[in-house]
Amino acid sequence: MRRFHDAVYHGHVARMLRECCVVDxxxxxxxxxxxxxxxxxxxxxxxxxLRLQDRQYIEHGVFGRGSVATSVLLLGLEVNVNAVFDVxxx
Length: 90
Description:
Blueprint: H1 2-32, E1 36-41, E2 46-53, E3 56-64, E4 68-70, E5 78-80, H2 81-85
Antiparallel strand pairs: 1-2, 2-3, 4-5
């Protein structure tokens, strides 16, 4: 029963993340002209980098484990995706 509950919960979280981060924020950020933003998705362990072009966001890349997320706006900014998700809490 616990696995079923976890699957339902994670499905709910995934839908909330999509609605909040992918739909709402993308429109809000484009409206005010934010040139680039990053979405960190803990469920599938990816970082999506979006850049504003003609008042709409296009994906610069979706970076998963084993890759390095890069910025279009800040040349030289690189983030190791494994390092983001391999955080140990004490």
